[in-house]
Amino acid sequence: DQQVKQNSPSLSVQEGRISILNCDYTNSMFDYFLWYKKYPAEGPTFLISISSIKDKNEDGRFTVFLNKSAKHLSLHIVPSQPGDSAVYFCAASARSGANSKLTFGKGITLSVRP
Amino acid sequence: KAGVTQTPRYLIKTRGQQVTLSCSPISGHRSVSWYQQTPGQGLQFLFEYFSETQRNKGNFPGRFSGRQFSNSRSEMNVSTLELGDSALYLCASSLPGVSTDTQYFGPGTRLTVL
Known about the structure:
The structure holds two protein chains of two kinds.
Chain A: E1 4-5, E2 10-14, E3 19-25, E4 32-38, E5 45-51, E6 56-59, E7 62-67, E8 72-77, E9 86-93, E10 103-104, E11 108-113
Parallel strand pairs in A: 2-11
Antiparallel strand pairs in A: 1-3, 3-8, 4-5, 4-9, 6-7, 7-8, 9-10, 9-11
Chain B: E1 5-7, E2 10-13, E3 19-24, E4 31-38, E5 42-50, E6 53-57, E7 64-68, E8 74-78, E9 87-94, E10 104-105, E11 109-113
Parallel strand pairs in B: 2-11
Antiparallel strand pairs in B: 1-3, 3-8, 4-5, 4-9, 5-6, 7-8, 9-10, 9-11
């Protein structure tokens, strides 16, 4: 049973436009959500996170939105740049359990066209 | 501050052998988690160590084991290797605690089982 789902395997956008990456989750115990970016042959790099007590968190070009009732979060990248081309993973954890286990989605490959 | 380091970066083994992978966390981080990444399954949680104790464990067979040393460095061992164990093994470290469980990943060890 996949608890974190990234249903679109890939996304292609034009440089300068907005990229919207979506993620859905099923486990209502999840209360902390993260986005990671991964280049080939490298480990995932932390991008941005959001706690369930918030519905938006912004860091530069990256904004994450959380809709708890829909169990849905999205990552917005504005403006998109060619260097943003990578695989993006959504991850979730249940921090009330005081452990660091992250449950990941299968990732979305973002391609930003110059 | 130096990031998470993993050794070796690449490893080739044959079926039935065993392998040990090493991870050095970011200085000051006491929690170390291990993940397996395969094309079909994405990133899957193996286990987490904190203060030399396994605090959480994923759904992997007993052939997968780990340990953590007093300096927070961690090792992961896989015995009786199978072809399906070919994957990228990622280590992540974090400061333990409810509000600081963002995990930072190393570059990974690419294991190929022939």
